[in-house]
Amino acid sequence: MNPHPLPTPGTPPEPAPLRKIAIEEHFWDPAKTSNDFAAMAQVSGVSEEFLEAALTRMRDFTTIRLDEMDASGIDVSVLSLTASGIEGMRDRDRAITAARHVNNFLAERIRESGGRYEGFASVPLQDTDAAIAELDRAVRDLGMRGVLVNGYVDIGDDEHAHYLDEPRFDAFWEALEELGVPLYLHPRPSSEVVRDALYRGRPELSGATWGFAPETATHALRLVFGGVFDRHPRAQLILGHMGETLPFFQWRIQRAFEYNPYDSRPSKRLQDYLADNIHVTTSGHFSSQALITALLTMGADRVLFATDYPYDVSTDAARWIEGAPISETDRRKIAHSNAEKLLGLSPATVSAS
User: In this model, does residue 5 exceed pLDDT 90?
Assistant: First the structure.
């Protein structure tokens, strides 16, 4: 018999559910988006069946989406128009009209949701002045939390892909700074010329399997080495999919850049821009190894939760972040408080939803 028994431990209370804000969650507006499933599937590297199922989930706002949010403990989803969005419309006037329609459509869905949805605006970057005006209207009048841009911009009959480091877009970056809202840079398939060169005979590599990441990472590096964040130091960029490989590859990129013979010389290192101007999300990349790399590279204040609905499964994203091998402080930052801070969301409002 033990003469000195230990006290019987009590049962600690169950932890409170982890509140979550998901910020790369897509919708589809069939009135302003192509429904050519075969063509969309081909350039995205997925089957027509997958794309048709995703589009069915994407155009729902009242049942499937909310049920999946509830099952995942997601309080709020920040919705955005899926690729190729407004950016794929070559006609300037059509892009301007479509962006206004899409933002009005999204604002109505947000109002109807009772606090479950927020939104990123779409803008017609085919005309910079019109894009600035629509951004201002969407943020000030409609309450959008920023803007999501689906990759490069198609403009008129020009066959070149137009990236956001071009001087024509400087005034738009200035407007983002003045409004204090971020730009989410989302993938779209590479241009036809690039796809034909890199993925000929291997179409399965052209989309999310691989092609989206180098396309978007290159665009982000154009912003860094093109001096966008030197000219607009308060601008904030968001990259999905755990940073489109950049947290993993940043040391190598900066190292090799130091040997280049060209005139482009940003004032800081790539690592500094990742710490000062860039955020990453967990959308469609539920890997603890990748998460820890992002945390070591950028810090917990610059990683945000997202699922990539409807292209991925929200419950998988939720269960993963709930059990990821990180501190509880970092888990809460990633799950909700970083988004509250970056997007100006009230914690009380989010909790009440």
Answer: no
Rounded to an integer, what distance in angstroms lies between the CA atom of residue 338 and that of residue 143?
19
Q: Which residues pair with 303 in a beta bridge?
A: 280
Beta bridge partners of residue 119, listed in sequence order: 79
Give yes or no for a contact between 204 and 45, defined as CB atoms under 8 angstroms apart. yes
Task: Give the three-state DSSP class for 162.
Answer: strand
Which of 235, 242, 227, 247 shows the shortest CA–CA distance to 304?
242
Determine the structural domain holding residue 170 and report its residue range: 20-352
> Is pLDDT at 261 greater than 90 in this prediction?
no
304 residue type, one letter: L
Rounded mean pLDDT of 312-327? Answer: 97
Q: Please tell me what DSSP assigns to residue 300.
A: G
| Domains: count for the chain | 1
CA–CA dist 27, 121 (Å, integer): 12
Amino acid at 84: S
> What rounded mean pLDDT belongs to the chain?
92
Decide: 121 and 134 in contact? Cβ < 8 Å: yes
Q: What is the CATH number of the domain that holds 47?
A: 3.20.20.140
The set of catalytic residues is 308
Summarised one tens digit per residue, pLDDT across range 267-292 is 999 999 999 999 999 999 999 999 99
Q: Yes or no: say if 184 and 243 are a contact pair by the CB < 8 Å rule.
A: no
How does DSSP classify residue 152?
A: S
